[in-house]
Amino acid sequence: MHTIRLKINEKVYDKFIWFLNRFTKDEVEIIPEDEEFDKTREYLEQELEEIESGKATFYSQEKVEKRLDQVIRKHED
Length: 77
Hints:
By secondary structure, the protein is mostly helical.
């Protein structure tokens, strides 16, 4: 599958969207873009790269819960 990015003139936008909606979601999917989406995608791509390269550190749920308890106790006082 390919992804393209287009700038569409307001005059034809509605017609273009109408045309794209004629395809099934398996054929063409309209993906709205916004700044938050782009930031999230970039962050997740970096995280995936770290995992695939073997540089990521993983923790068990038990270890995370113990650490969280320590942090909570520290800040309760």
